[in-house]
Each structure stands twice: as C-alpha cells, then as structure tokens.
Amino acid sequence: MANAPTDPAHRVGAIDALRGLALFGVLAINLEMEFRVSIFRQLLPASPDPTLNGVVDAALALFVDMKAFALFSFLFGVGLAIQFDRLSTSPRRTRLLIRRLLALLLFGVIHLVLIWNGDILTEYALAGLVVLPFLFAPRWVVTIAAAVILTFYVLQPVLPSFISFPNRYMLAAFVEAANQTYANGSFAEVLALRVKELPALLPLHLYVFPRTIGLFLVGVLCWRGGLFTELAGRCRNLLAIAGFAAVAGGVLLARFTHPSAALANPIILASGYAALVIAIEQTPAGARLLRFAEPVGRMAFTNYIVQSVVLGFIFYGYGLGLFGRLGSAAGLLLVVAIYAAQVVVSRLWLARFAYGPIEWLWRSLMYGRAPLFRIEGYPRKAPFARL
C-alpha cells in the first residue's frame, strides 16, 4: 500500500547495517568532541598530546571525524529516495514527504533546544526540503546538482564567503563558560548556555549545509542506480571503489595541506567505507558478521536521541557532571559500552515491536495515523490503527 509505512520485512539489510555502523561513529565523535569537552575546543589551536588520550584523538580525527556524518547524510538521501519511490502511486506523495520532513524539523528543534545543541536533525530536515524538488528531476539533473554543490563545498576556502565565524577570544570564552556550567550547572543553567551558544554554532551549520545537500543527492543517485538492490556481480567493483577511496584519501592527507583537501577527504573516505560495507554484506559470512548492526540501524532515530539523553546525563551538572573530567581513552571505552547496550536493546525491542518508538511516532505524524506497533499484529491485521 503506497500510503502505508514500510513493512519491516521489506527493508534492505545493507542500508540498516551501514546506518548502524555510521551511528557508532556519530556516537564516538559526539561523546569525545562535543559532550566530553566543549564543542568549540576543537576550533582552537592545541599542542600535540603524546599520551594515549592523544592517540585516541588522532585516530578519531583520522578515521571517524566528519566521515561518520558524511555517511549519515548519504544514507538520509537514500532514505528520501526510498520513500519517494514507495509513494509513487499515491496522489499525496509530495504532501506526505513534506509532512515527514516537517515532523523531523519539529523533532530537531526540540532536540536542539532541550537536549543538545549539536543536533543534526534540524539541518537534515531543512536540507531535505531543499532536495525534495530534485526527487522529481531526471537522473542527469540530480547528478549535475550534486557535482556542483559538492564542488562549491570543497572550494569554499578559496571563495568569497558571507559566513562569519567566532574569533579565538569568543571561542575561548565559550570553552570557559562550558567548563563551568556544563560540569556543574543545573538543567536550567545548562539550557541557558546551550541556547546562548546557538548563534556561534550557526556558522558551522551554514558551512557544511552544502555538503549535506550534496550527499543527500548522491544518496538519491545511488538508490536509483541500484546500489542496494541490483548487486549481482558488483562486489569486485565495490571493493575497487573502497580501495581507490583509501588510496585517494591517504594521498590527500599526506601530500596536500590546502583546506579544500581537508574538506574533500571525509567525503572520499566515507564513500570507501560505504562501498566496503555493502560489498561485505553481500557475502553470507559478511552478512552474518554485520547483522549485529542492523537493529541499531533500524532504530537509528531513536538510538540517536537516546545517545544525546544518556550523554547529557553522564557529562552535565544535572547528572554525573563528568564534563571536562574524562580522558579520551576512557571516553572511547564509554562509547563502546553505550553502543553495545544499544545493540542488545535494539535487538530485543525489534523482536517485539515493528519500529523503534521515535520511528513509530515519526511515521504516525507523517501519515496522520499510527502503524501497528507490536510485531504480533504485523502484518496479519489492518496496516493502520487510528490515532
């Protein structure tokens, strides 16, 4: 039924596995660089750290930072294309997709203000509204648009810009305020500082907004090109792409110091990660190996919000108050523990329910009626229960 939410049995395992793995990277970067310490600290110059903490920071910056978010953006574009295709016979297609993105925007604003100002949902909702008209365009138009937008993103360091970033003194002041308030403040005090930081965070979002739009469009192209559905005979090609991305990313990192190279590198490496995971997932052994990540990916929205709530409690003053008091190495252990818990909980949850709780609410807001929640009622009963 075109107007109904996706039957969980019809999901593509490679997409869920890839999304679940990307969420691990998102958790790692959010915890280490944006909850454990001030989000602005990474924008200030720092001396090399020869300790284990410094090694962890360097490894995350090299292999994970920005790559996980690029991968997440790509997968969101894939999801948009899937929804667009599923609604192809519905006269309400455009309206439903707009409602889906507006509901995401609502979630994003709530998350941004009340939970954590490093939110990506608001940006994704706005970027999705920009990309929506391209879903109706032929593939060549989407290809040109993606190429132009990503080229603009990579060339931003050499182009005139209207974006004004905070200076070093402002950044240092925000770091100092975070060290005091986030570590020791009440919920109201943390909320006040979170809102105060928003204008300083806006330039960062504006700067990466073209990349988000461009990667959404790449996701649309990959879905339309059968990357996840027509994989027979493509495994070698995917491995070749992964190898090329690793070499190209390494060359950019080692030989080029221009800021544009630093912007291009995460996109290249993220494409290599995606190709490698999809190739591995096509073999029986690989599918079994990656199966642990699929439930996390199916509940990515819920897991993302839960991560923010848990990390806020761990690091902010209204909870355990560990802000600024935990090293990177200990933080990485915490990342593994939280993600492992989400693997277990997601698997147990989806054994009983068709959707994660926030995924279910999101679908309900999109369609205007609630899909059945418990797995026992799916699909033997009617696909909808009235709100």
Automatic annotation (TrEMBL):
The record's InterPro entries line, in alphabetical order, gives: Bact_Transport_Assoc (IPR052529), DUF418 (IPR007349)
Keyword Transmembrane on entry: yes
What region holds the DUF418 domain? Answer: 263-368
Q: Has the keyword Lyase been applied to this entry? A: no
Q: Which residues cross the membrane?
A: 59-84, 96-114, 120-137, 144-163, 204-226, 238-256, 262-280, 301-323, 329-350
Q: Which Pfam families match?
A: DUF418
Which keywords describe this protein according to UniProt?
Membrane, Transmembrane, Transmembrane helix
Could you say which residues form the signal peptide?
none
Protein name as it appears in the record:
Membrane protein
Q: Which organism is it from?
A: Bradyrhizobium iriomotense
Lineage here is: Bacteria, Pseudomonadati, Pseudomonadota, Alphaproteobacteria, Hyphomicrobiales
